[in-house]
Design a protein that fits this description.
By secondary structure, this protein is an alpha+beta fold. It is built from five helices and twelve strands. It starts with a strand and ends in a 5-residue tail after the last helix.
Amino acid sequence: MKIMRFGNTAVPYTVSWTGEERQFVGHCRHANARALCMHHAPGAGKPCFGKPHSDRQREVIACGLCDLCGRSLRNRTKVSLSHARGRMNAAPGSTTGILQVEPLLHRECALESIRFCPSLKRDLANGMLMIRQVNRYQVQFAIMAPEYIQHYVPDYVPTAADRIVGHAKVELIRWIDRDLGWLGAEAV
């Protein structure tokens, strides 16, 4: 899969495009449940950086794919670029874990993301972005409140039994904190 570009800028696989803004409640095969879904038309219009496509966000996390290129993370170094900090209500058996909505990346894709993304550069400079080498993680799916779903799909009428999935989450169980030099980012 080739990384999409908008001008010279790399566009993450998970980014939504202006041609994909229509949202609806449908079946998500990655969560195997009803979910908040979006129209599919990657490359149509302009990329909406910072606004992930709900279906592709769940896909990359559930299937273990890279946020930037969309290829498998299997047997590769996995990197987390996130603001998330440790939580006490993390994985069973752990004392603290990280729960994040940002998908994981290949090491080289994490470096490319930092090179091109002004938000990541700013957050890294401000000490807000954590770089982690991920050794073990698991997937969770967020169940959204009816009010949240109705905000995006105004004509949706919830029932008492509804359990609608929103975004996927990566729960980091084992990781090593790293720095920009570890990514090989002397040129950033």
